[in-house]
Structures are given as structure tokens and as C-alpha cells.
Amino acid sequence: MSLYNYAIILKIKHRDQISSIYTLYTYTEGLKDVIIFRNQKFLFTNFKLYNVYFCIFKKGDPLDQIKYILPLYHYFAIEQHPLKTIVWEYLSEFIIYQLYSQENSELIYNLLGSTLSQLNNCTEKAILPILLRSLYFLLKYFGWQPQLYTCVKTGESLEVTKTFRYSNIGFSASYGGLVKLGKIPRHEYIGILTKEEVDIFQKIIRLRSNTYNFRVPLKKFNKILIHLEYLLCKYIEYHIGRRMLGSIKFGKVFVERTQYFDRLNMEQDQFE
Hints:
Layout: E1 4-14, E2 19-26, E3 30-37, H1 41-46, E4 51-58, E5 65-74, H2 76-79, H3 82-96, H4 105-121, H5 127-142, E6 168-172, E7 177-179, E8 191-194, H6 195-206, H7 218-240, H8 245-270
Antiparallel strand pairs: 1-2, 1-4, 2-3, 4-5, 6-7, 6-8
InterPro entries: ARFGAP/RecO, RecO, RecO_C
Pfam family, one: RecO_C
Organism: Cyanophora sudae
């Protein structure tokens, strides 16, 4: 066990009146639980979600404790935005389900750090693409990467180009990604994607920017993204064997915010 590590807080759970359990994701060890007592006032005040830290640990029984923290990056904008905080809860929930494996911990840690930075700086329109891209790469690092560029049954390329000739493509959790329609039993498909949805999904995965400026009307874009998130969530649930509560919470808040901004735009149009 390393006594020092880079760490990102995934979850804080109050244990009792005098202590809380902090679930961290560390650079070399992956998931790690530590206990912090309320009389450790400096830690209780300064060790917060949505930040990146360098930590020195000390052994404890049954859980390790933190001896020293050095804040490295602060992402205050996330805490002030309800949709961004739910995205972080969603990703944290998925990671915590993977038990305490060190496999690919450095890649996952770097992905989480990048996601925090992007969420902190992104516009409203980019939040869901960032979530989709982060979920995709977590699936990849956990060994469940969905195939989005070829048919997993026939091996035929399904990358959307000018010569792409399919209007709809199936998506299967059990087979591991995109499958041409009619190639596997009907019940093995968890959904169907249009050509435009496949194209947007592939572009989101390839893009490294957090702007995601697609030439698609906002209402249509949001509808496509919600469908992609739904299918990706069903894919995740198939592999982990349980429901993703973060997806339910995210969908509810996303719809409520979208409806609110639609009403606001309508009111503004009436005064122009």
C-alpha cells in the first residue's frame, strides 16, 4: 500500500456523528476508502468533492486515515451547477460498482481529472456529450468497451461516411455494440440507432474538445443525446447486473432544465 497518492473524491458518506467515509479514486491504487473524524477540522473544511489532491495517508484499523492534503486543482463551477454535480455522481456510482481493482487505475484517474476540468469549463450543451464520452471510456478501461465502428456479428465497417448506406443500426449489450438489423435474435437488441445518432455518437467519442459544436438544432440534439445515454445506461446495467440510479436522476433533472429553458426562450420571444 502506498502512503502517498494523488486522489479525487468520488463520494462522502456520513458514518456516524463523529466520522465520515470518503471514497477516493487514487492514481496508483484505484478505489480507496478512508475515514475522517469531525475533530479533524482542517480536513472537514478543505477536503471536498470536485477537487484534485495530493494526499499522505496513515494506516488505520479498519480504514486508513489522511495525514496531509495538498490541493492541486479546484473546480468550483461544478458544485454550483446541479446537472454537472449529477454527472459526477453518475460516473462515481459506476466506478464504485467495479469493486476495488487497481487495473487501469492510472488511465481512469486521468480520465476523471480530465472530466472534472471539462465539466468545470463547459457550456450547458456540452454536459451530456462529456458524460457519454466518459462513460464510454470507463467501459473501455473496465473491459466492456462497446463496438461503435463495426458490426460485432459480421465485422462490416459501420463508420458513418458519405457512402454509409444504412438508415438504422441495432445496439446490443450481450453482443457488445453495434449490430446490423436481422443478424442476431430480436430480443438481443436493446435499441435501434438512426444513421444520424450513430454519426453523433462516433464523433463524440473521437472529439477531444469540450465544445461539441454539432450543426444540429438544440431540441433535436438533446433528444438524440438522451437516447444515446439511455442505450449506454442499459448496456452498463447489463454488464454490472444492477440499475444505475444516477441515470434516473440525471434524466429527470435534464428534462426539467430543458423545459425550463424552453419556457424562458418563449417568454423572451414574446417581448421581441
